[in-house]
Write a structure and sequence with these properties.
8-stranded parallel sheet
């Protein structure tokens, strides 16, 4: 099922269970969806132009709501099916395994759980994440949720192992609230706060919901939590077993939400004959069902519904046999289904939006086939759902009006697109008879590499990621960026020597292209986010070719110096517009092809392509200019982006994930520190590109064309050898040391007594500049929503454009006043300031 062009879908001819007492159930009826909402529920609805889903022989109902699930445990499924002790479980899951989780592990486990949940008809989930080890881990989990298409409330909580740092909490909640709790996205964020009153206060100031694991003999709710505003409908208390009567009364008075996990509570022996579900009902609360964990069970609510029905009846019968007074009546299947739908929606704060098939609510809808031998005939629809259907009977899943799959195309594991880690031969052994296998040093490597090797693929899921950027993307970027490298040493000489303009004019002509890119990066980012990097790259390549054509016209004989200069300026502006789209598109396209967890490596390869183009393009441009004149060099500027477009046309498109798209200025506000560090790094490179040829000419050195070659050699060497480093350690640390090395290189160029020393300084500058972009780029991407990564890259690169646009004229002034060498002293100082800025931005990363 795909979304129809007019946004209408009609589920026709099924048995309808609405879960809304005001909207009657129908033995045969229809549900109309318009956009993201339910438009009508009725019999034989007459609708024109809708996609029709034939539901004959099927049950149509609201999507299930899993009200409590530790999704980060998805990779550890059934690892401890027989565990009966909470602290043994914590020792294995938290201390032995969880302590080694990386952001990629969080992403894969959470994504696996999300897809398995959708496969089982769960459209909304409360993700109880007690492993938020760092902002990077949290972002990875949220990225997994956002790209899966499930509706989720991600509860951020401290990791359970003793070595985990909580330095980022609760402060990181402010960033997360700004990123995720604005607008109408499917994924929102809350606090998994336990009984830390200061954390609660901050969460409430951010209007967040608060989740607390609550077992009566392990947790006590002190009187300080009666502070006005702390305890209320925004609270979710899970388990709630062995809770004293006075606490139940406080819960009831405050109107909190209670979630129970029948299988998990029985597994660990949390509950007693008091039975938490029934106590919540007895105190006027509306308990919801949660799966809790995958280490013993699977990601479906059918087992929880079976357990709740059986356990309540068993507990109440036991109390009757003990002659207890006021024993509750046996639970009914409708009450069980409420716990799995509307009660869960209420716990998530979404009862006005989901949980029932009510016109006006969000279209979270599932259908079950009932023609299977284990289900047919349907004599009682609700009884069939609670007691008979299973995961394999789920047919259609829709979230917010978007199809998340049909039974023949629901969540699957695929072996495409990912390569096995080279470290797959390990000694493994058992642990304490629990059936747990582990690598001698790090079991998580084995578990996660197996998941990576399979990959996760389903209908309308994110594309299968490659292990390295597609060669065609890198080749296209190289060819297209030749249009930037070819004129760099040529235009300064043409403007200064042929046209007779001053150093200041030279700096302005070079810098104006980079200023042009600044004002168009927002457009380029939005273009990439909405239409993909490929579209942006192709459009940019065409505009770059137009810029080269204008350069060619400026070199035609017979034009006055003023007219030639004016045409070159227009050409630089056009080239800036083209470069903005082309580079933003290619960089974002490359990142999308490999995924966020390899973003640093991707940016390393795109940087190699760009600076290889500079290193090769600059001497080629100089040779063409000296041999055949400006016209020949500019013909090359026309052909290079056209060749890039031909290559790009053959490559696969990767679009940005759906989600809330922020205004460009807000994206800039989220990544300004990383962008400023990049901008200060760019000053040194700008000095080399704009004034190296003039500096060498003034010193009577004859190999100015080799400056960018030397820079490119150092740059590419580091990218090839250490390109993946920003994905493995703190990007801030990598950037700090890189900027320090750049400062050394700039100082060498400034004080060079001989040409060879100046060229060595350019080489060292390249070594330092190599990893600043990917290191800070990785940190910048962590700060934005997945749907805004194109804009984030556009904003991030815009800071580099600002550096090029401003430092060109500034260096021209410095060169005029103090000589060309002073330009590189200025570059060294800026690199050191950048290092100091990055040092203040460092934070714990795993």
């Amino acid at each position: 099922m795909s979304k129809h062009k007019n946004g209408r879908t009609l589920f026709k001819g099924g048995t309808i269970v609405t879960m809304d007492p005001k909207v009657p159930n129908l033995s045969t009826g229809d549900v109309l969806v318009e956009g993201c909402r339910i438009a009508a529920v009725g019999v034989n609805l007459q609708v024109d132009g809708a996609e029709v889903v034939d539901c004959t022989g099927s049950i149509i109902m609201p999507g299930l709501v899993d009200a409590h699930h530790h999704m980060w445990l998805g990779a550890l499924r059934r690892m401890m099916p027989d565990v009966d002790d909470l602290f043994t479980y914590i020792d294995v899951v938290a201390e032995t395994l969880g302590a080694h989780y990386r952001p990629i592990d969080m992403y894969l486990s959470t994504k696996l759980t999300a897809l398995a949940s959708l496969d089982a008809g769960i459209t909304t989930i409360i993700d109880a994440c007690h492993s938020s080890r760092s902002p990077g881990h949290t972002d990875a989990a949220l990225d997994a949720l956002d790209t899966s298409g499930i509706r989720a409330l991600h509860m951020v909580g401290a990791a359970m192992d003793k070595k985990a740092s909580t330095a980022h909490l609760p402060g990181d909640l402010k960033r997360l609230a700004g990123n995720w709790n604005q607008g109408e996205g499917l994924v929102r964020v809350g606090l998994f706060g336990q009984l830390n009153i200061d954390w609660w206060r901050l969460a409430r100031s951010l209007d967040m919901r608060i989740l607390t694991e609550f077992i009566g003999d392990l947790a006590k709710l002190g009187p300080e939590f009666d502070e006005p505003g702390l305890l209320g409908p925004h609270n979710i208390f899970n388990h709630c077993t062995r809770v004293p009567e006075e606490t139940w009364k406080r819960f009831a008075k405050a109107g909190v939400n209670v979630t129970v996990n029948p299988r998990s509570d029985a597994l660990f022996g949390f509950d007693d004959e008091g039975f938490a579900y029934q106590q919540a009902i007895d105190h006027g609360l509306t308990p919801a069902l949660g799966i809790d964990l995958d280490t013993a069970f699977g990601s479906d609510l059918f087992g929880e519904m079976h357990a709740l029905f059986g356990q309540q009846r068993s507990a109440m019968r036991y109390r009757r046999l003990r002659s207890d007074e006021n024993v509750a009546k046996p639970i009914l299947v409708e009450a069980v289904l409420k716990a799995a739908t509307i009660n869960g929606a209420r716990a998530a704060g979404l009862e006005s939006e989901i949980g029932t098939l009510t016109p006006g609510k969000q279209a979270d809808i599932i259908t079950f086939r009932t023609n299977g031998v284990a289900v047919f005939p349907v004599t009682n629809a609700i009884g069939t759902i609670v007691q008979a259907v299973e995961r394999s009977d789920v047919d259609t899943v829709m979230v917010a009006g978007q199809a998340r799959g049909r039974r023949d195309r629901l969540a699957r594991l695929s072996v495409r697109g990912e390569r096995l880690s080279p470290e797959l031969v390990w000694r493994i052994h058992g642990r304490r008879g629990l059936g747990l296998t582990q690598r001698q040093l790090n079991c998580m490597e084995a578990v996660m590499s197996a998941l990576i090797a399979k990959g996760v693929n389903r209908l309308e899921a994110a594309p299968v990621h490659l292990s390295r950027p597609a060669p065609g993307i890198i080749a296209a970027l190289f060819c297209g960026y030749l249009a930037v490298g070819l004129p760099l040493p040529v235009i300064p000489l043409f403007v200064h020597d042929k046209l007779g303009f001053t150093n200041l004019i030279v700096g302005l002509v070079i810098g104006i292209q980079f200023l042009a890119t600044v004002v168009t990066r927002g457009y380029a980012g939005r273009l990439t986010d909405h239409h993909g990097g490929k579209r942006s790259a192709l459009q940019g390549a065409a505009v770059c070719a137009l810029g080269g054509l204008l350069y060619f016209v400026a070199a035609m004989p017979g034009l006055s110096p003023a007219i030639s200069l004016a045409i070159i300026v227009v050409g630089r502006l056009v080239a800036g517009l083209g470069e903005s789209q082309f580079v933003t598109g290619c960089v974002s396209w490359s990142i999308a092809s490999v995924g966020l967890q390899r973003a640093g490596m991707s940016m390393s390869w795109t940087g190699i392509a760009m600076f290889a183009a500079l290193a090769i393009g600059a001497p080629i441009g100089m040779a063409l200019y000296q041999t055949y004149g400006l016209e020949a060099a500019m013909v090359a500027c026309i052909l290079a982006p056209l060749i890039a477009a031909v290559i790009a046309l053959r490559e696969r498109s990767y679009t940005s994930p759906a989600g809330l798209r922020l205004p460009f200025y807000r994206v800039i506000g989220q990544i300004w520190r990383e962008g400023l560090g990049l901008m200060l790094q760019g000053v040194g490179l700008s000095g080399l590109t704009a004034f190296a040829s003039l500096y060498f000419a003034a010193r009577s050195w004859g190999h100015a064309g080799l400056v960018m070659t030397a820079f490119g050699i150092g740059f590419i060497f580091v990218r090839l050898v250490l390109g993946a480093l920003p994905d493995k350690m703190s990007g801030y640390r990598v950037a700090l040391w890189s900027l320090a090395v750049e400062a050394i290189g700039q100082a060498m160029v400034w004080g060079a007594p001989y040409e060879i020393v100046a060229l060595a300084g350019a080489l060292v500058t390249g070594l330092g500049c190599a990893l600043v972009f990917p290191a800070l780029g990785v940190e910048a991407l962590k700060r934005v929503l997945p749907a805004n990564r194109g804009s984030a890259m556009g904003a991030f690169v815009a800071f580099l454009d600002i550096a090029y646009g401003l430092s060109g004229p500034a260096a021209g002034v410095i060169a005029g006043q103090f000589g060309y060498a002073a330009v590189y002293l200025f570059g060294a100082a800026c690199a050191l300031i950048g290092a100091a800025l990055v040092a203040t931005a460092r934070r714990p990363q795993s």
